[in-house]
Amino acid sequence: MISKKAIANLRKAATYKKSLSLPFLPVILCGQAYAASSGGGSLPWETPLQTLTNSMSGPVAYSISIIAIGAAGATLVWGGEISEVTRRLVFLVLVISLIALATSAYSSLFASGAVF
Q1: CA dist 46 to 24, 43, 50, 99, Å?
Q2: Distance between CA 56 and CA 98 in Å, rounded?
Q3: Packing angle of the helix pair 84-109, 59-78 (nearest 10 deg)
Q4: What would the pLDDT profile of 73-110 be if each residue is shown by its tens digit?
Q5: Quick check: pTM over 0.85?
Q6: Which residues contact residue 65 at a Cβ distance below 8 angstroms, ignoring those fewer than 6 apart?
Q7: Phi/psi class of residue 23: alpha, beta or left (left: φ > 0; alpha: ψ in -120 to 50)?
Q8: Domain spans in the chain, listed from the N-terminal domain onward
Q9: Are 103 and 116 a contacting pair, CB within 8 Å?
Q10: Where is the chain membrane-spanning (predicted)?
């Protein structure tokens, strides 16, 4: 036979499970919410960021990044004794040019759908 203590423990467990599922109730019950893509005003920083994104994926950025990769590589290989600050700046230029190159290559290879 089941004791009263066991029944009380089962009730507490059921209440505990209900309290854990309570925060997820709005997610389960509400329908899908769609983000508005148009309408309303745009934020003031969206236009400069979109311009920067377009500039980072164009043919000029691709050419500049190829030249920067070559120059940074030549500096690292034949630079001789350069200071640590200069070496870090060369690595920074190399990373930025690789990011620009990857962005241009990604946008030209996968031009459909969401592009950077």
Answers
A1: 33, 6, 6, 21
A2: 11
A3: 150
A4: 898 888 888 888 988 999 999 998 888 888 777 777 77
A5: no
A6: 97, 98, 100, 101, 104
A7: alpha
A8: 45-116
A9: yes
A10: 59-78, 90-111
Per-residue tokens: 68: 């920067």
Match 């997820």 to its residue by tokens. Answer: 24
Three-state secondary structure readout of the chain = CCCHHHHHHHHHHHHHHHHHHHHHHHHHHCCCCCCCCCCCCCCCCHHHHHHHHHHHCCHHHHHHHHHHHHHHHHHHHHCCCCCHHHHHHHHHHHHHHHHHHHHHHHHHHCCCCCCC
Residue with tokens 């994926």: 57
